Amino acid sequence: MIHASGYAAHTAQDGLHPFEFDRQEAGPGEVEIEVLYCGICHSDIHQVKNEWNNTVYPCVPGHEVVGRVSRVGEGVTRYRTGDLVGVGCMIDSCHECGPCQHGEENYCEGPNSWLATYNGPMLPAAMAPDHRNSYGRDNTFGGYSNSLVVREDFVLKIPAALKPEAAAPILCAGVTTYSPLKHWRVKPGDKVGIIGFGGLGDMAAKIARAMGAEVTVFTRTPEKLEEASRLGVSGILESDKKAIEKMTQSFDFMLSTVPEKHDVNPFIPLLKRDCTLCVVGALENLEPVNNQQLAFHRKNVAGSLIGSIAETQEVLDFCAKHGIAPDIEMVAMQEVNDAYRKVEEGEVRFRYVIDMATLEKPAGLGPR
User: Fold this and answer.
1) Model confidence over 81-102: pLDDT tens digits?
2) Which of 27, 49, 257, 350 could form a disulfide with 281 if both were Cys (CB 3.0 to 4.6 A apart)?
């Protein structure tokens, strides 16, 4: 057994606190990883607070993990000790269903869907209270810890051109936006609208621009207009109704990255005929969609869930090739509860990343 240290929530109300636990050592086909950095995703906050009504406690969040291989199990061929690697939202799947056979593990149709890096399989809320799964694990503990053990085929290579700490959010925020941009075939010259300009919106704008699209971001925050200009994309305030009205039927694709319940109806008129608005930021019920807006121009409102393992490697390589990285702010493990508050209140400029070297420091000390 591996004795592990991390931070966990034990209820929806008490925040994250130091937590000691054991992990199984790397078995055949598995890789043991020393965690160096872990991004803070808004999904972590939803899960810790049980806002999706399916959290299994104790909950050790973290699915934007970068670390070094510390040990490999029997039969591992892809990685060696010392390799810089990443782990995203999944650590296993059924391997047998149609989506898994086609390399789309993120849409696994097995008995429990894919196995999440933390909080076990992505089970419906009704199944959570007596959570058991076919992998023999009551729960899984994520990257807010000093170690992970993962199947080698769910481990990603971190390109040398990426800074390890900046690569961490690409493993969720990056692939969650790359996957729909790729699926709906965004190409040079397309007009792409990004709704919401936080962690996901930042990556979506950078990736779409690198794909050759003409990008417009929609934000509620005036200060972010300057940031959009810095990235070389257009920025529009959602409150600027006149400017938005002028964009009617002008977008080839739109991506909503807003991480909570919101209304997409104001943006549907902006789509061209036969085009799609995809929602990736919210798993809650959205405001009802006005089907008249869809039907009259055969438009679509769709959803997309993270990305496959292959797509995650693709986006890491794509970001390395194009010099793309999220804007990040490093925090100590002991600052995680304050970081959560700032994310919820919109104070952070894009993405927090935890320096796991601070895990062993006494509470109250900041990063090195």
Assistant:
1) 999 999 999 999 999 999 999 9
2) 257
Torsion of CA 130, 136, 140, 146, to 10 degrees: 150
β-pairing, 17-23 vs 271-279, is: unpaired
State the Cα–Cα distance between residues 219 and 205, nearest whole angstrom: 12
Instruction: Note the Cα 265 to chain centre separation in Å.
Output: 25
Peptide bond into 129 cis (omega under 30): no
E-strand ranges in 161-258 read 191-195, 214-219, 234-237, 251-256
Asked whether the whole model's pTM tops 0.90, one would answer yes
Give the 3-state secondary structure of 11-52.
CCCCCCEEEEEEECCCCCCEEEEEEEEEECCHHHHHHHCCCC
Greatest extent of the chain over all pairs of C-alpha atoms, in Å: 63
**Chain segment 126-185, per-residue pLDDT in tens:** 444 444 443 445 689 999 999 999 999 999 999 999 999 999 999 999 999 999 999 999
Contact between 324 and 300 under an 8 Å Cβ cutoff? The reply is: no
Domains in the chain with CATH codes: 2-172+326-360 (3.90.180.10), 173-303 (3.40.50.720)
Cβ-based neighbour number of residue 207 at 10 Å: 27
How far from the centroid of its chain's Cα atoms is residue 62's Cα?
Answer: 10
* Distance from C-alpha of 129 to C-alpha of 139, rounded to nearest angstrom: 12
Residue 100 backbone dihedrals phi, psi, to 5 degrees? -65, -40
Q: What is the pLDDT of residues 198-240, one digit of tens each?
A: 999 999 999 999 999 999 999 999 989 999 999 999 999 999 9
Nearest Cα residue to 64 out of 129, 158, 133: 158
Angle, helix 199-210 to helix 309-322, in steps of 10 degrees:
70
Residue 55 has pLDDT above 60, yes or no: yes
Q: From CA 257, how far away is CA 282, in angstroms rounded?
A: 7
Q: Is the dihedral of CA 75, 167, 343, 243 positive or negative?
A: negative
